[in-house]
Every structure is written in structure tokens, then in C-alpha cells.
Amino acid sequence: MRSRTVKYASKPRGTLVVLFVITPLMNTHLMNRRPKVPVLPGAEPYRHEGGEVGVLLCHGFTGSPQSLRPWAEYLAERGLTVSLPLLPGHGTRWEDMQLTGWQDWYAELDRELRALRDRCTQVFVFGLSMGAALAMRLAAKHGDEISGLVLVNPANKVHGPAAYALPVLRHLVPSVKGIISDIAKEGGVEIGYSRVPLHAAHSMRNLYALVDGELPQVTQPMLLLHSPQDHVVPPADSARILSRVSSTDVTESLLEQSYHVATLDHDADRIFEESYAFLGRLAPAVGKKSGVGHVDQQEGTATGG
């Protein structure tokens, strides 16, 4: 029998659908070769060598590890081995994403997962938005190698007119204005791109369709946290995911005080605490800190293209 726990404080508010504002940029033709581009300050990947339980964290589309960095550091401080990579094409300039697609993003996470599996006895995968979709694909493909999933405002579909226009529009307009720092907390800032590269957005759309078909293959324990008021991903995406996965151990938690980037918002501490409790329930080694951990904050450059 499938067990599902739902936590909420009040009635969810209405669904908000994102509409892209089309504003073409000049001189944005793609180049076959690009020089190395500096990574935006704060967008660097993060890794920590801890104990025998590992966590792979996956950031979202046009975002960067910065959106999950406080979460990663919280877990590292509690003795876990943590990997928070920078996805290809992210963390530099939006033009670099035009030369990448979901296969590149997934391949990077797949490599990180395999490295964690070589190092740890149990591995969990956490994801925000598109990062949650990539996490679910990892779960569908790797099965028992992943001990559990924690998903925050997971994305399942591109909504609105843009979804139907993308196949053609991406050949006419290189990018459109996007939404960044969808955070209720005053002063909250997300490091990412303010424009949406349409070739990459089309690839993301294809990813969502692929993952939606693979959801029945997801069987791992799952903690899904989502915001009723999210200006990027509507609550319908979470409902769709919960209705299609085969997981029997599922906990749904509503983030009433936060918008899309909830990991940097008012409910951040709650996300950290609930995810750590989730780990503790499924991994007996959690709470047993290793000796001396090593933090690897990679700075430098990323290659565009």
C-alpha cells in the first residue's frame, strides 16, 4: 500500500503560468568556438568529502549552484559527502547555454552520481526545478543505486503559449526575457541568467516529456516540497509527478512562505531540516560524522561550447 503524508498550513493559492516576453537581442549569433569564460562569482560548484552517505544536488535551468549552496553547506556541516556541480552552459553567460542541451546536463550529473557511488555506501539525489526533473531521470535509470529523492518545486512541463511556439521560435529569436530571483524574502538574490536561451529551452521541453514517461520507473522514497505561489513552476507539476511515480514512501510538504527558489527563501531552514530528517530515517549512518572533511570549491573558468 502506498503511504503519502501531506503537510500544509492553509489553502494553496491560484496557479500562475509564466509567459515569456519576446525581446530580441542584437548580435547574438552562435559561434562554433568560444574562449573560456569566467564563472560568475558565487556560481562555482561545491564539493565536500564527508562520511559514507552522499548527496548529489542538482540546480535548475539558467541557475547555478548558488541557489543550493546553503543547503549543500548545511549537509556538509553534518558530516555528509556532498556534490553540487555546475551544469554545462550555466554560470557564465546565457549564450553558452545555446550550445548545450539536456543530454549535457544529465551526463554531468550522471558522472557525479557514479563518483559518489564509488565513494559512499548510500547516495541520495536532491533537485530544484529542472534539477528535480534530472534527479528523477537519474532515479529511473539507476534504481536501487539511489536511496531516495528530495525534490523542491519540481518541473514537469513548459507551460503557456511558449511551449507550442518553441520549436519554431528558437530559430527566429535567440533568447527571451526570463524570471530570475523568484524569491519572496526581501533581498533574496539568485545568481543566474536573466534571459532564456531558446535552443536550450526547447531541449528542456524535450527533457520534461521524456521524464514524464519515465515517472512510473521512479520507485525510491521521495520527499517533495513545493510552493503554492510559484511564478515559474505551477503546483500542477508536483501533482502530476506524485500521481505518476511508483514510489510507495512519499511525503509532500507545502512551502507557504516561499516562491520558486525556496532554497533561498523564507522556508529554506525548513527544507534543510526536513531533508536531513528524511536522510536520517533512511540512512542509519547519517549523524555519524567522519573525521576531517575536505571542501572543494572550484573556481575559475567554464568552457562555452
From TrEMBL:
Serine aminopeptidase S33 domain: residues covered: 55-265
Domain of life: Bacteria
Protein name, entry field: Esterase/lipase
